[in-house]
Design brief:
The chain is built from 18 helices and 21 strands. It has about 650 residues and is of the alpha+beta class. It folds into five domains: about 30 residues, no CATH class; about 80 residues, no CATH class; about 140 residues, Jelly Rolls; about 150 residues, Jelly Rolls; about 180 residues, Tetratricopeptide repeat domain (Serine Threonine Protein Phosphatase 5, Tetratricopeptide repeat), CATH 1.25.40.10. Helix 8 packs antiparallel against helix 9 and helix 11 runs antiparallel to helix 12. The chain is elongated.
Length: about 650
C-alpha cells in the first residue's frame, strides 16, 4: 500500500506534459463548439407573429399609426416593437390568461416576445423569403362581401383638429318596409385612425331622434340608455374597435330589424391634429332563417353607489346577480372609465365552486371590447354572478384625467366613473325564456334603487307585457314621480292606465306627455285611441289625422282612423264619414293586404255605402283568411 501511495503522488516523467496538452485542448473547445445562437430571421420566425397580431391594425387606412405589412416596415420600427411587446402594451390585450378563453385573444407568448428581442439583437435580418408566409391580403371593400343594405349617416361629423376626445351619436334610419332577420353587421367607421371604439344600439322607438338639436345631425354622449327599451329583444353585442373582424351570428341567432327603427352609432373620436370629416357606414346582411334561439344581455352594475374620494388608491365597487334558470354565457363586455384598475367577473356555483368569467389586472379604457368565449360557460340555476371592480383615484394612476385628483361619482361623462359587466347569456331550456331573466334583472335593480326611474319604468313595462296593467300602474307612477318632466314616463303611465280601463286618467297623461313634447307621435296616437274609447269621435279623428301627417305610411293609424270614422257615422246615423273610412281601410290594406279584419271592416263600410258587390267581395276575402271572423259572417248574411 505505501508503494501505491508513492506511485500515485509521483507520476512518471513521461506523463508530465499531459496536463499541458489537455489545457490546449480545453482552450480550443470554445472555438470548436461556440456556434452562434440560432439566427432569427424575419421571414422564417417574425413575420407570422407580425401578420397575425399586428397588421390587422397596422396597415394603410386603418387605426395603427404606421404600417407593418413588409419587412422594411417592421425593421424600421424594430426597436419600438421590442419595447412595447416586452411591456405588453402591444398587441393590446387586457384579460389575464387563465381566467377565460376568448375568441378575440391576441396575446403574445413569452417565447414570441423573446424571439422578437433576439431578432433585433441580431440586427433584424430578413432571411430567405422562399417558403415564407405570404403577407395577408385585406379587402379594401366590405370584408363579408357587399351587404344587403348599406346604411349611411344623415349628416357627417366634423372632428376638430385638437381639443378633448369626443363621444358622438349618429342616428341612422333603417329604410325597410318589412321585418328582416340580420345575421351579420359590418361597420365601416369612416376614418379608422380617428376612432377608438364604437357600438351600435337598436332604437326601435326612435326616441334618440328627439335628442338631436338638428334632425340627422346626431348628439353628444358617452354612454346611452333608452329607458323605453332597456331590454333589447334580440340581445346581441354590436361593436367595433381597431382590428375588429365582423362576426356572423350563430345559426338561429339572427336579430330582427323592424320598419321605422333607427340604429344609433355611438363612437369615441380622437382628434388627429387636423380637422377631419367622419362619415360612418353600417352594412347589414340578411338571412331567411328566423331566430330560434333567444340570447339576452344581462348587466351587472352599481353606478349609483360610486363615490370615490380624491386620493383613494383602492375603491371597491360590487354587484351580484343570482341566475333564475340554467344558462350559458356566450360573451362578456367589461366597462369602466379612467380610474378602473382591477376588474373581476366570476360565478359562484350552487356547490360553492368558482368559475372565472374575466379578470383584467390593469384596466385601460382605450382597449375595451366584447370578449366571446371559445366555449360557452355553463352556469346552473342559482349561480351567483359577481362583479368586483377596483378603482385608483390617486395621482399615481397615469390614466387619471384629474390633476390633482378630485372626488368622482358615477355618471356617463368621461370624467365620471362607471362599472358595468355585460354578459350575453342564453337559456339552456329551449324556447324564449327571456321574460324570466328580465324579471330577475329588474327586481335586482329595484333592490339597489327603489326610487330609481329606470328600475320602476322597466318593472312597469315588464308587467304590461305580462298583461298585468293594474300592477304596472304604481311602478309607472313611481317613475313619473322620479322624473316628472319626462314625456315618455307620462305616456307610459297613460298606456298602463288605458290598459287598466282607466281612460279618463289615461287621456290626461297623454295630454301631459304632449305638453312636454309636442312631437311625441306615439303619445298622440295613444291620445287618439283613448279619445275613441271615451267616444270623443271628432277629437280622435283629428289626432289620428295628425299622426298620419307625421307618419304617413303607418297602416295601423289608417285602420284606426277608418274605425273611428265608421263608428262615428254609425252612431250618428250619418253616412258622410263612410267614404273617408273606406279610403282609410283601402290605404291600410296597401301595407297589410293579409289582414282579415281590415277586409271585413272595408266590406261593412262599403255595404253601408250601397256598394254591395264590392262589399261582398271584401267580406268573402276576410272569411277565406279567417273563417271564424264573426263580424264578417254577420255582415255577409245581411247582404244575402
Amino acid at each position: 500500500m505505501p508503494m501505491l501511495t508513492q506511485r500515485a503522488t509521483t507520476p512518471p516523467a513521461k506523463t508530465e506534459r499531459a496536463p499541458r496538452v489537455a489545457l490546449l485542448l480545453l482552450l480550443a473547445l470554445p472555438a470548436i463548439g461556440a456556434n452562434p445562437v440560432p439566427s432569427v430571421t424575419f421571414y422564417r420566425q417574425i413575420s407570422p407573429i407580425i401578420y397575425y397580431n399586428c397588421t390587422p391594425c397596422h396597415r394603410p387606412g386603418e387605426s395603427g399609426p404606421f404600417s407593418l405589412l413588409t419587412y422594411e416596415d417592421v425593421k424600421k420600427h424594430a426597436s419600438q416593437i421590442v419595447a412595447v411587446t416586452k411591456k405588453r402594451y402591444m398587441p393590446p390585450w387586457l384579460p389575464e390568461p387563465g381566467y377565460g378563453d376568448f375568441v378575440e385573444e391576441r396575446r403574445l407568448s413569452e417565447g414570441q416576445i423573446q424571439l422578437i428581442e433576439d431578432w433585433v439583437k441580431q440586427g433584424s435580418p430578413a432571411g430567405s423569403a422562399t417558403g415564407a408566409p405570404v403577407p395577408p391580403k385585406f379587402k379594401i371593400e366590405w370584408q363579408l362581401g357587399r351587404p344587403d343594405l348599406i346604411l349611411h349617416v344623415v349628416h357627417a361629423y366634423r372632428l376638430s383638429s385638437d381639443g378633448p376626445e369626443v363621444f358622438w351619436n349618429f342616428v341612422i334610419p333603417v329604410p325597410i318596409t318589412g321585418p328582416k332577420w340580420v345575421k351579420a353587421v359590418e361597420i365601416r367607421p369612416g376614418v379608422p385612425r380617428l376612432i377608438h371604439h364604437a357600438s351600435v344600439i337598436l332604437d326601435r322607438s326612435r326616441s334618440a331622434e328627439r335628442r338631436e338639436a338638428v334632425p340627422g345631425a346626431g348628439f353628444p354622449g358617452m354612454d346611452l340608455t333608452f329607458a323605453e327599451h332597456t331590454f333589447d329583444p334580440d340581445g346581441s353585442f354590436l361593436a367595433w374597435k381597431p382590428g375588429s373582424v365582423p362576426m356572423i351570428e350563430p345559426d338561429g341567432m339572427a336579430w330582427r330589424a323592424d320598419p321605422g327603427m333607427d340604429l344609433v352609432f355611438n363612437v369615441h373620436l380622437r382628434p388627429s391634429g387636423k380637422s377631419e370629416i367622419v362619415s360612418p357606414q353600417i352594412g347589414l346582411y340578411f338571412t331567411d332563417k328566423p331566430r330560434t334561439k333567444y340570447p339576452m344581455l344581462v348587466e351587472l352594475e352599481h353606478d349609483g353607489a360610486i363615490d370615490i374620494p380624491a386620493g383613494e388608491p383602492d375603491y371597491l365597487l360590487s354587484d351580484d346577480f343570482r341566475t333564475p334558470l340554467d344558462l350559458v354565457v356566450l360573451a362578456v363586455y367589461p366597462h369602466a372609465h379612467y380610474l378602473g384598475k382591477l376588474l373581476e367577473g366570476y360565478a359562484t356555483l350552487p356547490d360553492g365552486s368558482r368559475k372565472w368569467l374575466v379578470r383584467i389586472p390593469d384596466w385601460d379604457l382605450n382597449w375595451q371590447g366584447v370578449l366571446h368565449f371559445k366555449k360557452p360557460v355553463y352556469l346552473p340555476r342559482g349561480t351567483v354572478i359577481s362583479m368586483r371592480y377596483h378603482y385608483d383615484n390617486t395621482a399615481a394612476n397615469v390614466r387619471n384625467p384629474n390633476r390633482p385628483p378630485r372626488r368622482v361619482k358615477g355618471g356617463s361623462q368621461a370624467n365620471d366613473e362607471m362599472g358595468n359587466l355585460w354578459l350575453q347569456v342564453l337559456a339552456v331550456k329551449e324556447g324564449d325564456q327571456r321574460e324570466i331573466l328580465q324579471e330577475a334583472v329588474v327586481r335586482r335593480l329595484l333592490e339597489k334603487y327603489p326610487a330609481d326611474f329606470a328600475a320602476n319604468f322597466n318593472m312597469g313595462d315588464l308587467l304590461l307585457t305580462q298583461e298585468k296593467a293594474a300592477a304596472a300602474v304604481p311602478y309607472f307612477e313611481a317613475a313619473w314621480k322620479a322624473q316628472p318632466g319626462n314625456a315618455i314616463a307620462a305616456s307610459e303611465l297613460g298606456v298602463a292606465l288605458a290598459s287598466a280601463s282607466r281612460f279618463i286618467e289615461a287621456e290626461e297623461q297623454f295630454r301631459r306627455a304632449l305638453e312636454l313634447d309636442p312631437k311625441f307621435t306615439d303619445a298622440r296616437y295613444n291620445l287618439a285611441s283613448v279619445e275613441a274609447a271615451n267616444r270623443k269621435w271628432e277629437e280622435a279623428a283629428r289626432e289620428f289625422r295628425q299622426v298620419l301627417a307625421e307618419r304617413p305610411e303607418d297602416p295601423k293609424t289608417r285602420q284606426h282612423l277608418g274605425e273611428v270614422l265608421f263608428t262615428w257615422g254609425d252612431e250618428l246615423a250619418d253616412s258622410r264619414h263612410d267614404e273617408p273610412a273606406a279610403l282609410c281601410y283601402r290605404e291600410a290594406l296597401v301595407y297589410r293586404s293579409d289582414d282579415a279584419e281590415l277586409h271585413s271592416n272595408l266590406g261593412m263600410v262599403l255595404a253601408r255605402l250601397g256598394r254591395v258587390s264590392e262589399a261582398r267581395s271584401e267580406l268573402e276575402t276576410a272569411l277565406r283568411m279567417d273563417p271564424n271572423l264573426e263580424p264578417a259572417k254577420k255582415a255577409l248574411e245581411q247582404l244575402r
